Every structure is written in C-alpha cells, then in structure tokens.
Amino acid sequence: MPFARTGSTSRLPLACLFWLLAIPAGWAAPVGIVIGLNGDCIISRGGNRTPATLSQSVEVGDTVEVPTGGKLKLRMADGSMVSLAPGTRMTITTYGVDEAGQRQEAKLTLEKGLVRSEVTPVAGTPARFEIDTAVATAAVRSTDWFVELNGEDMQVNVLKGSVETTSKATRRAVLIPARAASRIRIGRDPTPPARVNMTALNGLVGRTLVRTQVRLPPRGPERPNLERRPGQPDRSHTAARTEASKGVGLRHERQRPPERQREPERQRQDGPRRPHERQR
User: What are phi and psi of 119, to 5 degrees?
Assistant: First the structure.
C-alpha cells in the first residue's frame, strides 16, 4: 500500500477521484511500515489491539506497544527510521508528507520507554520532527537522537545533529549538540547539555537496535542505478567492476615477493652457491 501524499489532486485521473470519493470517512492513509520486529508487539487502532506483523502499515492515531523483551522498527513515509526499545509505548500523533514524499510535519507522543529517531533531512522549507511527552517536547530538523521517558523524568541524548528541548511547565529551552544530553524533570527547566561518552551512546544504540527484516529499495550512489532507461547498461555496476579489477591488479603487484624471498628459486636454477659466494 503506498504512503500518504497530501497536496493538489488536480493532476489525478478522473477514475482516481471517484475512488477517493468512495473512501469511508474513517479511513486513514498509512504513514509508515513495520520493517523490524522482535517479540509480541501490539498496534492499537480505533480501540482495536492487534499483534504487529512485518510489513504492516501504521497510520496517524496508531499506538505502538513494545513489551519487555521486544523491539520494533518503523520506516516512515519520508524515509525516517523510528526504533522502539523494550517496554515502550508511543502514539503517532501527526505525520504529514507532500506529493514528493517530503515531510511537512511530524509529531510522536511518547508515553513511556525509549525511542531512537533517525530523521531524514527535508530539502527546501525546514520541517520539524517532534517527540512529545508529559514532561517536555524535543524537536529537530534532521538528526539521530534518543528520547527516554521514565515516570516524571525525561532524557534526550543526541548522537548526530542537534535537538531543541523545551520544558512544558517553564517553557525554557536548551539546544543539545551532538554527543551530548539533557535531563528534564516534570515542572523544571532542562539541565544544561552535558557531554556523553560513546560507551553510553552505544548502550542506547544496543537497546534500540532492531534488524531490518523487510527488503527496502536501494538508495544512494553506491547502489545499482534504478533510473536507467530500458536497454541502457548499468554504469554503476560497470564502474564497480572496473574499480574492482584495478584493485585486483594492485593486490597482485603488492603480493610479488621481495628479492630475498626469490633467492631459493635462483638457487634451484643456478645450483647451490659456494661458501665464499654466500658471504657476499
């Protein structure tokens, strides 16, 4: 099922317009899919609780629950990744994208647990990506970060980029840079950002790490060129083979034995050297 797209429908075929008019009033378009799953996770929609499955779509208003020992990973419509640690409960409050798949606004509500968000940058107009809790709101444009809520305590750790965190009670905000963290207690200001060592950040990565179990389309220049015309050779593969062949040639050159290692071969051809010849 395709992801949601918002914007003008003037270019849609007439048949598509009739189809859109026939959609039930309560229907909502998907804004992401489940691409990684461990344990008996639950997705609640409209009061109905169903077991999460791989490739299952999620919609605005859905609540994702991850039990102790479970994990879940979502790929959102704009390409952002959201990973939930064991014991996490999160609701997709808002998630809008345009016709090109660019994020317009996104808001996730964290009720408890730990969430990692790897947010895709948006070209042109900046689009916020927020994680909201009862304690504070954390917002970014594009970054890799963690939000953990434990009762009345919230902590934001930033792996890459920067995150603005605002206390709901005092409206005071701090900007947290990469490899730093801030802690917020309900009713108080966020603490000044403090440096975090990579051991602590790697621990958060491990708690939210979920293996991708759904095949995703190739992305990036290092992958095969999927936009080539029919019959046109895949130059990315050709270039890769060329570079590989160059590398093989270099490896062969590096593997040529030095002069001293070839000495026994000369002895086999010319016969054993006399004692006074070996001393030279």
Answer: -90, 130
